[in-house]
Amino acid sequence: MGARSLVVLLFLMFILSFSSAYQGKKKQYKPCKQMVLYFHDVLYNGQNAANATSAIVGAPQWGNLTILADKFHFGDVVVFDDPITLDNNFHSKPVGRAQGMYIYDTKNTFTAWLGFTFVLNSTDFQGTLNFMGADPIMVKTRDITVVSGTGDFFMHRGIATIMTDAFEGEVYFRLRVDIKLYECW
Questions:
Q1: How far is residue 4 from each of residues 14, 15, 17, 47, 117, measured CA to CA in Å?
Q2: Is the CB of residue 112 less than 8 Å from the CB of residue 102?
Q3: Which of 25, 97, 129, 183 would you call most buried, defined as having the most Cβ atoms within 10 angstroms of its Cβ?
Q4: Would you say 59 and 44 are in contact if contact means Cβ atoms under 8 Å apart?
Q5: Is the pTM of this model over 0.85?
Q6: How far apart are CA 178 and CA 67, in angstroms?
Q7: How many degrees, rounded to 5, is the angle at CA 30 between CA 26 and CA 35?
Q8: Band of the pLDDT at 47, cuts 50, 70, 90?
Q9: Dihedral over Cα of 63, 68, 74, 80: its sign
Q10: How far is 87 from 39, CA to CA, in rounded Å?
């Protein structure tokens, strides 16, 4: 065996031993920050203007702006400015506002696309967190992306697991948002 063949053989043995040492080992990520918050959405229905925190601003031709469209609400665009609380009580003191929109974007199931910001202004949290992603509403828990933040959350990124914590028809729902930030500056 020549010197060149010996070098190639040693290199291949090194590569095989190196790769086998890492087989089955996956990097375990631990969040650098974690919190659970709730936001409460009250959809304007033509009669609840004093309490409404969201409104339909776009509807398909067969829809209207006070009732969600038939057929899985496809085509409705809703903007919101919802209170955020530390617990699931709608009347708890808010720690901020959830501001953004959801778009019902699927014709054959209840699914929405979410884009919103948590504007937090409390003694514990100061700043914003920005979220976006698909929300397959009929699934118990759904993950959306935390794409950025400001203030105490400057340049933070992570995952928010959301679940519908309560709902009353098509006028009120409460989401539990379990936020795990994996990139904290």
A1: 15, 17, 20, 84, 60
A2: yes
A3: 129
A4: no
A5: no
A6: 30
A7: 145
A8: very high
A9: positive
A10: 9
